[in-house]
Each structure stands twice: as structure tokens, then as C-alpha cells.
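Lecture 7, part B: from sequences to assemblies.

Below are the input chains for today's worked example.
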Amino acid sequence: MQIGYSHDKRAYALCGVRLDGFVREDARRPGECIVTGMNSTPKTLYEKVWADHVVKSYEDGTDLLYVDRHLVQEVSSPQAFAGLEAAGRKIRRPDAHISVADHAVPTRDRAAALRDGLAARQVERLVQNTEKFGIPYIPMRDRRHGIVHVIGPELGFTLPGAVLVCGDSHTCTHGAFGAIAFGIGASECECVLATQTLRQRKQKTMRVLLEGRRPDGVEVKDFILAVISSIGVGGGVGYAIEYAGSAVRDLSMEQRMTLCNMSIEAGSRIGMVGPDDKTFDYLRGRPLAPAGQEWDAAVEAWRGLASEPDAVFDREVVIDVSTLAPFVSWGTTPEECSPITGRVPDPAEEPDDGRRRRLQRSLDYMALTPGMPLTDIRIDRVFIGSCTNGRIEDLRRAAAVVDGHRVADHVAAIVVPGSAAVRAQAEQEGLDRIFLEAGFEWRSSGCSMCVAMNDDRLSEGERCASTSNRNFEGRQGKGGRTHLMSPPMAAAAAISGRLADVRKLGI
Amino acid sequence: MKPFTTIESVAAFIDEDAIDTDIIFPARFLLLLDKAGLAKHAFHERRHAPALKQPFILDRAPFTAAEILVARKNFGTGSSREQAVWCLADFGIRCIIAESFGEIFFANCFKNGVLPIVKSGEELKAIRKAAGEEQKIEIDLVDRTIRFQDGRVMAFEVDDYRRDALLNGLDEIGSILRDDGDDIVRFEERQRGRSSWLHLDPQKLSTFADLGKEKILD
Ligand code: SF4
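Predicted structure of the full complex, as C-alpha cells:
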């Protein structure tokens, strides 16, 4: 049968019978068309990647979804491996997994053994498990070490159109490449190890349109904090988000990763950006990315992944980024944030009972007075790093603010590159010297004070300007207080010794 | 997994939005390697806060024996740590009723014999009231109903396959391997032809041949 395609990319058999599917962009010659969906609705990026991975559909509307890639880390995997062993099961496809210890590892004096007995045991368990099951393990002092969500893309393990999972909620980061990437629990990790599949129900779709020109001093972190404060920490529950619009097209891959990374903070396990030339340029030549003819074939296929222009999303949110200011969080959920020009809110002005109590609790925990200007908040610590903002561009932008200044006397500040590659690149560019001369500590790669599972943590009552993603109670250490912000804003806070508007530093 | 059919118990109400998984199970305990025995770390900071006026609800009779937890919005939001469910299950919690849940937490519940139920508005209010009055509430998964002491009955929704899995204590991995193995093989063959780059061949993986051989200075 010969197949042609019409202007709107709908596929028709040339005998006149409508096939009712879509011709992918990569079909250029008659008779070579690839029909991606056999129904008439224009598809979104998410729906296309999903459809490509359905192994089978069950009667109840759930699908058995194929998983191409699985990142394994030390915290969520011991119980998964133990379950596998207890049931006497094998790993279905050892080539689909890579592993690294990022959460519990120290970020200094790595030549010395791990000091903390529990962390040492956990890392050791990962080494044993990956050896036993034949999965590559990237050691702490290897040049490829780093936070899972930083090294996946660096290695070219993360690819457009793939389904990628990890026992970590910030797996949504990888959606920046046009992959369906989501965090799963340890039981699901076990299921992926054993079957390479997960039984899932397709999510609804939400498009977040970011339009307009990004003002000076406003970072992607501010985009995503603005999205979260607008839809709320539960706003994305049940949805797969796609970020689109002119402001997203303009973003580098690094910035897109920051954006997608915090989708989970809006409740959505999945945040995606349609792949384009920037995506392909980033991936070209990466060790695990396709090469040669396979690369060309892959790029052709990836070009067809973008959402159809007339695809319908279940929900749409539009944000004009040209009106944004740098954000900081003041509460204990990521939606509790405001432009730095604002003040700490007053619970007395909150009419809803539940919300008033929640607000009061946040302010009590954060030890903040209603009505005080956010720029009056004095800080003790600064953390620049994490899978949200631990990439080379983040360090460059923070260093640009720090250059020639000193960290305030009462502030202890650290920079923790997201990976060994980021660290090496930064050192090549001399960023380490800028940070060190300003009084920052310059560390090795890992999650560090984002999650406080190693020895980098806040003490009771300490207050931190942090480029990480969660300001939950105790997240950076028991009793610690976190203010989320962009790398330049964290740098400005380090210099000022309090939360500060980076635009007013005169840099 | 312990099959779930019916439970009857008092319900502990946690009167707070956005109880995240860091609150339920603080990160520093994630270094523990087992699933068992985690109950003592559940809500650790809340239970051991210095300024506690009265013991945390789960440490107060009759709620020390509660099998039902009632919460508000966005319960279990945040990290994917399954420890948040393991510690509650270890405490004896079998059912959590809230206005909404963190999605990964929600999925994790079913893997561990814990039933999450979404309820809002007047219905959630009624449940909260019964919880506050220390009434026993009955959760019947067979009928998909919540029964109160005064005889009132309230229906709830749950996915069929998840309900079946809970009712029968199903081993999901086992059933996929048994029933869907051939489909998976066929899918993989198709995909290898269509998107070969999604399969990493030994040549590509040879990039890892020198893993750990050379230690970087740091
Ligand atoms: S940096 Fe933080 S958020 Fe990212 S993976 Fe590590 S602990 Fe999780």
C-alpha cells in the first residue's frame, strides 16, 4: 500500500482511505511514511513518547510501559536489590542501568574513607549489588561521578523519546530532553530491574507557556518558582507538564533542566520540553549517545517528537516572564515564595482557616515576622549546587556576581558542583578561584546540603540561602531553615549576609 | 504483602496541609538499609520536638493503635522515598485518607499494602469529625465503602487492578513476568528495529571499561 500525507501531516493511503494517524516529520518520501498514532487527535510530545512505549494495554485503561533507561543510586536501591534476590530474580537488561552514589557521599577529603559508618555501608551495598548484577557503577572519584540527574545527560544516557526512571523524584529533570522521565519508589525500581516495565496510567497533559523576554537578573529558577507559586505544590498532580513558549525555546539545555527539575515541586512527576537543535547539539558526541548513521536516524526520529501545533492539552497555564522579579522562598513549601521586593506575608490577612494555620506554622518554623521585608532576612549559610542548579552555567552566573567581592563575615558558603565534569570545567575557566578568593569553599560533586545525608548540613536554627529545590522542614538538616533562590541570588546573599536583590548590587 | 480486605480502627487526624515525605521520614534515616523496623523514625521531628505541648497524635492513646490516618491536602508530597510508606506501614497504618496525595507516595502505598483514599469537602469533614471523636471507622475494600459507627456509609474510588492487588496481596512483578513476558520480548524486538539507539550495545558500554581506574584529584 502506498501512503501519502497531507499538509497537516495527517496520513492517507493513496487509494483514498484515510489512515487516521500521523506522519512523523521524518517521513519524507512517499511510501516511507511512519504513522505514529492511529487516531485523529493531534498528539502532544508526551502522548507520542508514551504511545511508543506501550507494551500492552490492560482492560482497566492502564498500560504496561516499557522503560529504556534506569538510573540507580544508593538510597533507593538497596531494598530493590534485596527484593530481587529474595525472589531469586535476575535483571532483565543490565545494559539499561547505570549506577552512582550521590546522596550520601562526602564532598571533601574524598581520598579518606567515608567517615560516617552508615553512609559507608550504604555506598558499599551499592557497589556489591551492582557488581553482583553486572551494572556499571561510577565510583566517587571517577571523572564521570556526579548527581544522577547531572550525569545522565552528560553521558548521553538521557535521550529524547526515551522512557527513563530513577528512584528519585527529581528524575523529571531529564524531561528537558523530550524524554518521559519520572521518579519511582523502591518497589517500582525492583519491578524495572526485573521486567524493564511499569504498569502505569497515562497522565493528563498540562502545557505551561512561558512567554516574553526574560528581564535582567531574572533566572530560570525564578520562572519555575513563579509557576509553582501560581499553580501550587499540588497543581501538577495527575498531569505531565510540557513547558513551551518563546521563553522556553530561548533557554539553553542547562536552563531547561533547571525548569523541568522542579516540576515535582508543583506535584507533577513529569516535566518535558520538545527536543530541538539545542537538544541535539548538547547530545552530539556524548559517550552513550548514538553516533554515525544511527545518530542521523535518531535525530530524524527526534524531530518528529514535538507536540503537534493543534494538539490539545487538558490544562494550560500562561506566564509572562517579562513581568517577573527574582524570587526567594520564605516558607516551608516551594510555593511559599515571593519576589525579593516583597514582604513576609501576614497570617492575619489569610481568610481561610487551614491556610492561615499552615502559614503560621511555616513562619514559626522559619522564625520570620509577618510584614518584614524579605531583604531584612539575615542568613548564616549559602549552598550553591544540587541537581537544580549545580551545572556549569549556574556556577558561571553565580561567579559573575561573586567576582571581586567577599562573602560576608558571618556567612559560611559552599559551592558543590553537580558533577566531576562540571567541577573540572569550572576549574578550567577559573571559577574555582573566584569562589575561593571570595571565601567560598570549593567542593567535590554530590547532593550535599540539598538533602543533608552527608556531613554538609545546617545546625538547628541556622538559615541558608540555597539553590536547591526543597525548603521542607529539616531538609537541609534538623531545625535548619532554607530559602530557595537562583545561583546569582544565592551569590548576592552570600556577599550581603542577608537575602538581597541581585539587581541592586550594582554588578 | 499482607492482603487487605476490611479494617476497623480509630483514625488519627493530622491537621496540616502538605505533609511532605521529609516530615514523614527525615532524610538522615534514609541511610538505613532495611524496610523493617522503621516505625520509630516516622514523623521523627514532630514526635521529638522540644516544645511539644502534648505527645504527637500517633503517640497518644487510642491513636497509638490507629490503622487509619486522616490528613489534609498534598499528603506525601516531595521525595520518592518509599521509606515514608514503610515507616507508616510498620507503625500499623493500613489506610490513609486525604484530600490529595503526592503521586509517587500514592503509588508506593499500594506496593506495601496501604490503601490511600482521596476524599474532600463534606465527606472529608465527616471523616475528620469521626476521627476527632475517636470513633472506629470501617474501611471495606471489597465493597469500596467507608462505614461509620452511626451506620452511615460512604463510597470511595480505587483503581480495579490496584484494588485486586491489595485484596489478594498480589506480587505484581511475578504477574508481569508470568503473563506479559512474551509481549515484552516482542516489544523489545520491535524497538530494536525502530529505535536501535535506545539499546546500549557493548561497544558503547565499553566507555565504562576504565571506570574507577583513574582517581581524580578532589
Ligand atoms: S541534589 Fe537534591 S534533589 Fe537532586 S537528587 Fe540530590 S538530593 Fe535529590
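Note for the exam: The first strand of chain B starts at residue 6 and ends at 13. Keep this in mind when comparing with the next example.
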